[in-house]
Amino acid sequence: MNPIRDFAQMTAHLQSLSHRKRVVVVCPNDPHTEYAVSRALEEGIADFVLVADARFAAHAEEMRSRCPEHVDVLVVATPDDAAALAVKIVREQKADILMKGLINTDNLLRAVLNKETGILPKGEVLTHVTVAHVPTYPKLLIFSDAAVIPRPTLAQFKAMIRYAVGVAHCCGVEEPRIALLHCSEKINEKFPHTLDYAVLKECAVQGEFGRVQMDGPMDVKTACDIHSGNIKGLSSPVVGNADILIFPNIESGNTFYKSITLFANADMAGTLRGPICPVVVTSRSDSGLSKYYSLALACLTETCKSQIPVNHENLCY
Known about the structure:
This protein is of the alpha/beta class. Helices cover 40% and strands 18% of the residues.
């Protein structure tokens, strides 16, 4: 499989597989969700279960009427009931992907993270992985975490990397190049995440993340612009050619996310990872197109189910 370099190629690849994923949508009542569902149906990449609260039952039925052979509708009393039922459907393996519609993210996550009835396995880390197509960059750029983890611990960094590498594999990148981001190239105890970076690089050398190239700390420009690296005298397979960016905290990751959408016209897709299925939860300011791309990304990762080989006998701590 050749690397996927934009979202049009991603959709074309999904269409070539002719294998629809089943998506359960919680409260599909907003225009962005309706656009994503309608386009996915047109492109033939997914079937849907629309779980609507009673206020919007008619709207959900109208959506079903456009493509009844590929859409089911379930009606419950409240949005919280919709979230609980959707999570139950995933737990029972009757859907492959969970998608947020017009429901507060906190309400949806309460159902996802419920210790008795949720879908986050014990010991797994909930994190957010973003895939961006920046017009000035020659390939897809994967980064984490822009939405969930405030200050990653070493264990959380490892989970972020594993999920990002898995997404890269699904996009056809066999040996992802991972940049561990900071404002400079120096490890400094005043910035504890740079100490974690030193450990992570050793883990990468020992094969904990599979076939990867990892380097850092480095800044975003050095990671994505070879000229910047040359000026600084840096030599690394990652410099100027990163596939994956790992941010030190949620502020930097979120600022990068919003900045490249506003100033670089980047197309974006993102999913929550850690639960037993991808969860599509886009930002309130994201477009319907971004929600569709996020849905396509979730379908891609569920289709390939790429796993990261981990040497359990030689884990780094």
